[in-house]
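PROTEIN DESIGN WORKSHEET
SECTION A - STRUCTURE
LENGTH: 331
TOKENS:
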């Protein structure tokens, strides 16, 4: 293996970069701000602070949507900017790159990630693809190289990836367009419909993190600020945990129904392994209160919660990079 190796998790919400010998060296929002459609004004957390607040001549966007690169130009500009800021030409030139990608996307969409690295401002040595379910499992310290079935559910920002793994490969996988951003959108729509009140995506995300639950919690409440549609003026209201649950309930059931569908298609011998070990739940949006309990109540399957759900993929990439016996899991 090269003396330099870089792992990159291009998440919809955040981008994370790992370097061998150093660990995670970047963890920032996957957001870019473009001034007058030509100049990179800001990227990462700095750009995110401008989201939904920028003037017309400043376009702030997420270049990755639903697990795939939606705007290759902005994505290329953003990754180049990050690496330039980290003195990339001197620090990372000639490195091997390990890029995590969802399994259930097309070969063309996977190739876009490869091309993104190949076209950076400085040359890479080799580019490897690591499927995200494999990185997730390794990031949770699971041994997936043996003939034991492992069931992983990753609830991310825009997607939920549900996968069955065995012998270092993926037996079954399904990517559905439901994740944290969809939860935020549902909260916005619920408040608009029931209260004639408009809030932004960042406010919805705060609500989700503070009082969202897989079960109704009317005792929880939160004061929020936005615009009253009846008066057109800035105002405030108080919403309850029950309101938030009602907004998200359908999405919770969709995720559980998809889990059930994958389980129904799983070979019997692997099913027995899954029943013994349970389901492994990860991804930033898996932090919603009581969601693991909700899955158990619906399916009767033990749910193992990840300690660092936001970082399981990048930790798994680090394991592939730093453990020679796991390098064979990269494509």
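SECTION B - SEQUENCE
RESIDUE ASSIGNMENT:
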């Amino acid at each position: 293996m090269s003396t330099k190796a870089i792992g990159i998790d291009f998440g919809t919400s955040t981008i994370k970069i790992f370097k061998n010998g150093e660990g995670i060296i970047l963890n920032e929002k996957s957001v870019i701000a473009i001034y007058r459609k030509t100049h990179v004004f800001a990227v990462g957390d700095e750009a995110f602070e401008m989201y939904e607040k920028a003037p017309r001549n400043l376009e702030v966007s997420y270049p990755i949507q639903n697990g795939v690169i939606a705007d290759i130009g902005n994505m290329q500009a953003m990754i180049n900017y990050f690496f330039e800021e980290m003195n990339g030409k001197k620090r990372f030139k000639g490195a091997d790159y390990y890029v995590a990608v969802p399994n259930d996307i097309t070969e063309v969409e996977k190739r876009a990630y490869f091309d993104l690295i190949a076209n950076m401002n400085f040359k890479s040595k080799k580019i490897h693809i690591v499927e995200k379910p494999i990185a997730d499992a390794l990031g949770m310290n699971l041994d997936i190289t043996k003939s034991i079935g492992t069931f992983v559910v990753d609830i991310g920002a825009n997607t939920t990836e549900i996968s069955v793994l065995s012998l270092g490969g993926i037996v079954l996988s399904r990517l559905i367009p439901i994740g944290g951003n969809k939860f935020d959108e549902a909260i916005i729509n619920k408040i608009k419909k029931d209260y004639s009140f408009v809030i932004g995506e960042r406010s919805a995300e705060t609500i989700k993190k503070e009082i969202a639950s897989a079960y109704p919690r009317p005792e929880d409440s939160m004061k929020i600020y936005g615009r009253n549609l009846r008066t057109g003026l800035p105002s405030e209201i108080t919403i309850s945990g029950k309101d938030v649950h009602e907004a998200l309930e359908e999405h919770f059931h969709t995720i559980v129904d998809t889990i059930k569908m994958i389980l129904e298609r799983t070979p019997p011998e692997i099913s027995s392994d899954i029943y013994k070990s349970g389901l492994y739940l990860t991804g930033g949006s898996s932090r919603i209160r009581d969601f693991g309990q909700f899955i158990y109540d619906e399916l009767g399957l033990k749910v193992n919660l990840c300690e660092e759900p936001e970082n399981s993929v990048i930790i798994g990439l680090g394991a592939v990079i730093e453990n020679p016996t796991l390098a064979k899991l990269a494509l």
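SECTION C - NOTES
DSSP finds eleven helices and 18 strands in the chain.
The first strand starts at residue 5 and ends at 10.
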